[in-house]
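[Meeting: bench + compute handoff]

Bench side (C.D.) handed over the final construct sequence. Compute side (W.E.) agreed to return the predicted structure before the next meeting so the bench team could plan truncations. Sequence as handed over:
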Amino acid sequence: MTATVTIASGATWQEVAAYKKRERDESVDSIPSPFPTFPAETPLNTLPIAKEALTADQIKITETLVEELVPQLAKGELTAIAVTEAFLRRAALAQKLTNCITELLPTRALKRAAFLDSHLKTNGKPVGPLHGIPISVKEHIGMEGLDFNGGYIAWVGTTAPKDAYILQILWNAGAVFYARTTEPQSLMHLETSSNMFGVTTNPFNTTLTPGGSSGGEGALVGFRGSCLGIGTDIGGSIRSPAANCGVYGMKPTSGRLPMGGMIACGKGQEGIVPTVGPLSTSLEGCKLFIKTLIDAKPWYKEPLLVPFPWKEEDFFKEKKLKVAVIWDDGVVKPHPPITRALKQVVEKLKTNGNIEVVDWKPYKHDFAWEIISNLYFADGGAEQAKTIDGAGEPWRPLSDHILKNKNVEAHSIQSLYKAIARRDQYRAEYANIWNSTATSVGPNGEPEGMVDVILCPVGPGVAPKLNTAKWWGYTSQWNLLDYPGLVVPIDQVDVAKDHLEEKYEPRNDFDKENWGFWEKYGAEGYKDAPISLQLVGRRYQDEKVIQAFEIIQKEVGLPFVGYV
């Protein structure tokens, strides 16, 4: 519904924030079946609380993977109402423990679920491939008639005139929208904190961040309050939360999935094009999400999209999968748990005769950060600053960090042209490096036998301590190149395995700060945090990346641990 307490109505930023929190809390408290009383202090790992607060059926439903729910719902073995009620309840619990929700939508979600159950009973077939699947939605993705503000208090009172196009497609496929999730001030943090809803925390260790900017989605899916959610990504905002919260997440190549109907500063800029994508408790959930959208041929309504159908070909028929490994981006050294997990995976891959593993030498990843952080805010961050200051709200520390970094520039037309040319030149150089991994040349002079995918960290550590996620390079690198990136869960921080005192001489200030956190907190400080890795492919090879990981997952047996 439309907000009534806004900056435009004369309220202070504190009054607007209090109003939004109250509105959110009322939606959460409307969920039936009161929860038990919890200790005043939230435990570090919140996952076990679900076992106490939920019924056996609710636990079973919410811990069932998307690809298992789909046939059960389609056959009527589970009702959409039962599934929706279970996820609403677990989402409400997730909010109380991690502060990941901006609004629950029980009335409209249950009405939708009842319709789907009636349709199945009457017609004997599901509405579509996502019939009855509850999907959580990042707040800045427009939902008709509901307030959306992108984390800015000044924008409270802005109402979406209709559902974002991506939601229209998912609705037609049978989805149920039941929860909206938190994002940070400015939408440009690798954490999730705002003056509106406060700080969202990691369900596996509440001293850590769930990531950002789709951190509400990360926390909710990680807690199993959602099996499939929608995030957006311009520098790591799907992949960071997926990694930090031990779930699957994919940033597609730009121009593949519809972006219309969202609210954000800088809309229309083309220096670094944002993407939308899934976070899910399974790889199949991500795959089904993307395929459903592409099968709808969204390029007819959103002409900026490329008209590429979902590719069904077997990319590795009668050929080896060739995987290159980035151990360290040459800028910020990963913490020991990341290196341990990467070594475990690589050692197993090397024993497989159908997989070839080579090392990848990062090419000027420090320069890549200069390029992308110079292109994010072509007006020097003026629009974001005006929007933050327009409400009189304080700047969050990580808004300061990204909007006022040394590479930000208020471009002239000429300087922007030069910046875009520098981006394109770097992309060409990186492509040439990838081409150089070829082992032969095809009949038309094309390189053959190249590296198929790059396996690398998602960040320089597992989920960071709050307000410390400053090095974006492990994810933003691939936004600059516009390469698809898939994040997958691997392991979990183990104090016994990961306790490591290593002397290290940092290379720069980012490196020094990051390694300092490991020296300060050690494995104990990151206890239970998921360890994830990232698989990257070339532009528009999204399906190939998914297929490559399906092979790796089968051969290696990932993840090595169960999270719930």
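W.E. noted at the follow-up: The first strand starts at residue 101 and ends at 104. C.D. will use this when planning the next construct.
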